[in-house]
Amino acid sequence: MPICSPLTGLLLAALLCTGSAAAEPIHQAPQPPDQQWQPLFQQVQGAHLFKDQKTFADAIPRQDARSLLDHWQQAQKQPGYSLPAFVAHQFAVPGDTAAYVPPAGESLRAHIEGLWPVLTRSSSTVDPHGSLLPLPRPYVVPGGRFREVYYWDSYFTMLGLASSGRWQQVRDMVDNFAWQLDQYGHIPNGNRSYYLSRSQPPFFSLMVDLLATHEGDEAYRRYLPHLRIEHAFWMRGAEGVPAGSAAERVVRLANGQLLNRYWDARVVPRTESWTDDLATAAQAPQRAPSQVYRDLRAGAESGWDFSSRWLADPAALGSIHTTAIVPVDLNSLLFHLEKTVVRASKAAGDRAAARDYEQRAQARRKAINTLLWDAAQGWYVDRDIERGQTRPALTAAALFPLWLQVATRSQARQTAAAVEAQLLRQGGLLTTTVNTGQQWDAPNGWAPLQWVAVDGLQHYGQDALARRVGTRFLHTVQSVYDAEGKLVEKYVVDGSAGGGGGGEYPLQDGFGWSNGVTLALLDRLCAPTRQCDSAQDAGAAD
User: Which residues are part of the catalytic machinery?
Assistant: First the structure.
């Protein structure tokens, strides 16, 4: 039977206690700034008053939207009116975060341990005029321009919190995401109103898995309702999708198999990248701007914003067509979600639900291992649903079926060989094999993808390769820390080690998921009888 307890919110009750398959939010979602403050928002962003467009999206007006716009209309009629002066007077604008300076001689581990309090935020109450959304418990942010919690980032941050023994913080963050599922019917990209139209890669089931290593099956029972809401969100509309069609995040292929894609409910420029998106659409005059905006937003939901994975022409961001692609990593994550619902349902004594979700999981595994597997090349790929064919490029996403144990042993062995030959570099694992100037391409390597590789390869006995990936990346992190006293969002792993480049904004310091993965790798690659405090402790980078 479903769990219907006093902790079950109204949305959970609607979904589980009545058997409904819907995952619609029950609360009125706040409007993002580009809707609330039109046309002031567009004029400010178009005037480029701030180096980073996200700055104004995060600014807090000193009065409600209607009063603000009335005041603006009147101000424009006054002699000496100045848009910068008006904004400075009417908004509290976030400033740059002061750089954290570690004590001299501090080890890499000690530095990260010292960063946890620096990166912790609380927003149980928020200013109703701003874009920040409340969360009931404290949380850890990535750092830099990222002043709010992010969905998929947080799992990798939690790995480090667990390594530090900060299990209460892990529990707080899982509770926050469960609260968002109850509040909104999904987990937003981040806790900003302008992120509510999309999610990010579905890592909630992995967060529950992590917490269950500390709390046991009680964690599965507690979050079973939320796991099912997450699944319902990603599968919304599946029953009515005919073969060869798609609806929101669901794709039914020509043979009737169900898989998923990334999506966003809005078809306007991203609030936090407004003029960038206008410019990108203008560079693709053959396409409807609304479709470019949707695909940019879906690319942001993927977390890989942006990458040649989503581009028809790797040199042109305007060719992005994320919504036409079935990604191998997303579908592997949803397989894990379905298998976690199976485990949680068994823990709760609901055998019928366990059987149902096991059937879903096995159907998805079969689809991944046939439709998202390139037998000729020997690695996992994405699939282009418009062209009805796979996309042949090898990317670090090919390791997700190993990490989440979708792959057969033969497929894992072939994928490992391809990754070693094409993606492994002196400083760790490349994201893709092509250098486009996009940040989720070569020469960058990202901490979460290193963890996926190491853990996934070890699942299939590829321990030597896993160790090479992990130690090489650790030495990259260590070299930047030794030179600059910080961890950063992404790293160059092809050639000389350093902070990564590309993308829409400067390299960010902090950094939540780099901190978390670094501690997890130090623990994983160190001898069981000792604690590693630096990359050198974990062994030489071979």
Answer: 305, 489
